[in-house]
Amino acid sequence: MDFPDDWPAECPPDDVEAAIGVVYRLVKSNPHAAADFLTAHELDKLPNAPPCLRCGLSVFRTREDAEHQYRAYPKLGKFIAKGELQSEHGVTKRTQGRQPTHTTWWVYEGVDRGAIFASVEEIV
Amino acid sequence: MWQVTGKPVDGRLFQPFKPEEVLYDFDGPRTFTHLDRDGQLCLSHWCDEDHKVTRFLVVPFTEQLVKKLKEGESTLRDALNQPRFWVLDVAHSGDVHEAWIVKFSDLPQEILPHPGTMLLPSLEPLLSLRAEGEEIQDGRVPGSVIRGLVEGVQKTIKMLAEYVLEQPTQTGRPPAFVKRLFDLPTQRLAFGSFEIAFRSPLAGPPELFADLTADELRQEQEALQRVGALLQTGLNWLLSSQPTSPAAIGQNSDESRLILQAIKNITPSSQGPIREVELRGALVKSPARPVRLTRDSRRATNTALAGLPSGREPLVQLTGRIREVDKDRYTFELREIEGEIVSQRFVFEEGFLEDVLEAFHDDYPVIVAGIGIPVRNLTQVLAIVRSQG
C-alpha cells in the first residue's frame, strides 16, 4: 500500500500511527459524495499551507466535535458521516492544536474513502 | 453559493490574505486573524465555498476580542457582529477574487454560526439561559429578569447538587468544589434579550485545580454529570409529547419531587416579565437546538408537583441554637431545639449568611422558619430571627 507519487518527500511524517478507530466528518448530503472526502491537495487549494498537511484529510475522533463544527460552519454540511478506519486505509496523526480530537488522515492510494463512511446521520 | 448583497470594494485591501493566528483549523484555516493592507487586525471566518473560490466573512478585530473568543467570553456570532463587515471570495490560489462591504443584518442566517456557538466545543458553557418577553428589550432589561434567572439557576443547581452530594457514594467532597458548584462562574452576559451563560466549575486553567488529586477531580466530574442527568431527566419529561406519570420521573417519589422542584425554578412564572427561557449548554445536552421553557412549562410542573404523594412540603418553625455551620454549602445544624426534635439541618441562601454566623458565634437562640425540600432531613430557611426567650 502506497501513497500517491505527487506528495512531497517525507510525507506523511515519521510520527504517524496506523489508521485505527472511529472517525467523524461532516458531509453535505446523504448519501455523501466523493467530493466530501477530497484533500486540499486534490482540490488544488491552499497552495501556501504546509505541503504535507494539504495531502491529509481532517477528521474528528468524537461526534460532539463534528456537531459543534456544524454549528460553527453550517455550510460544511448538516450530516455526520461515521467511519471506522483500519490499518489498510492509511495513517493518522493527532494534529489537534486547540481542537483535542482533530486528526489528520493520510489515505493510501486507491482506498475508497466513501465506502469507509457507511453511516450518515442528519444533525437534528 | 448565496448571492452577496453589498457594495463591491477593492479586494486588494486584504492582500496578502495570510493568517496571523489560526483559531480553528480543519482542512486548512477556517477561522483566523490576519492583517489588512494597512496593518490592522481582522478576523476571517469561513462561510462557504465552491470549486472556484472560498468565501470568508471578515471583520475588524482587536487582540482583546481575540482573547474573549479564545476564552469563551464571546460567541462566534457575537465576534462577527462588528460595525464594519466584508465578504471576501478568495480564489484557491490564495488571491482575493472579489470583496464586498455588507451589513451583518443582510447576511443569510443559514451561513452564520448558530447563536451561542463558541469557537471550540470545550468553551461551550455549562448552562446558558436566554430570557424572552415583551418587556425584555435591548438596554431595558428589568432587574427582576436578571435576578430571576440567576437565582433560578442557583436554586436548581443547589437543590440537585445537595441531593447528589447526599448520596452514600458522594462523601468527602472538597469544600472548594461545593462552593464552586453552588456559585457557578459567569462566563458571558448579553443584553439584547437577556442571556447569561455559566461556566463549568471544573473549567479553567490547570492551576485552579492544582490542589485536587486525579481521583478527586474524577469524583467532581461524576457529581456534576449526575446533576446534569437529573436536570436532563426533568426536562425530558417536561418536553415529552407523552409524559409518563410524574411519580415515575425519578427513581422514587422523593427524587421525582426534587427534579420537578428543581426545574420549576428555571421555568417562567405565569405572571412575570419572562415569556420564554431558552436553555443550552453541556448540562442540558442539547447543543444543536435550545430547550425552550414557557409559562405552560411552569403550569405543567406545578400540576405534576401537586399530584405527587405528599406534594405539599411541610412548613416548620423551630427555636434552637445554630451549630456546625458549613460556609461552603450554606447549611447549618439547629440543636437544643424546644420540643421533641433533637436536631434539624437547614440550607440557606447567601442573604442569611450574616444572621447565621452571628447567631453561631454569639451562641444565642434563634427562631427559624423553613420549608422542607425533598433532600433527606434538609429544610430551606425562609426566615431567621433572634429569639427573645
Task: Describe, in plain words, how this protein is organized in 3D.
With 124 residues, chain A is of the alpha+beta class. Chain A has one domain. Helices cover 18% and strands 28% of the residues of chain A. Chain A is built from 4 helices and 7 strands; from the N terminus they run E-E-H-H-E-H-E-E-E-H-E. Chain A has a 4-stranded antiparallel sheet. The model of chain A has no long low-confidence stretch (mean pLDDT 92). In chain B, the strands form 3 sheets. Chain B has a 7-stranded antiparallel sheet, with helices on one face. Chain B is elongated and about 85 Å long. Chain B folds into 3 domains: 116 residues, no CATH class; 184 residues, no CATH class; 72 residues, OB fold (Dihydrolipoamide Acetyltransferase, E2P) (Beta Barrel), CATH 2.40.50. In chain B, 39% of the residues are buried. In chain B, helix 5 packs across helix 6 and helix 6 runs antiparallel to helix 7. With 389 residues, chain B is of the alpha+beta class. Classes of the chains: A alpha+beta (124), B alpha+beta (389). At the A-B interface, helix 3 of A face strand 2, strand 3 and strand 4 of B.
What is the fold's blueprint, element by element?
The complex is a heterodimer of chains A (124) and B (389).
Chain A: E1 17-18, E2 21-27, H1 40-43, H2 51-54, E3 57-60, H3 63-72, E4 79-85, E5 90-94, E6 102-107, H4 113-116, E7 119-122
Antiparallel strand pairs in A: 1-5, 2-4, 3-6, 4-7, 5-6
Chain B: E1 7-9, E2 19-25, E3 29-35, E4 41-49, E5 53-60, H1 63-70, H2 76-80, E6 86-91, E7 96-101, E8 127-132, H3 143-165, H4 175-182, E9 186-190, E10 195-198, H5 214-239, H6 253-264, E11 276-280, E12 291-294, H7 295-307, E13 315-326, E14 331-335, E15 343-347, H8 353-362, E16 366-372, E17 378-386
Parallel strand pairs in B: 15-17
Antiparallel strand pairs in B: 1-7, 2-3, 3-4, 4-5, 5-6, 6-7, 8-10, 8-11, 9-10, 11-12, 13-14, 13-16, 14-15, 16-17
Helix pairs in contact in B: 3-5, 3-6, 5-6, 6-7
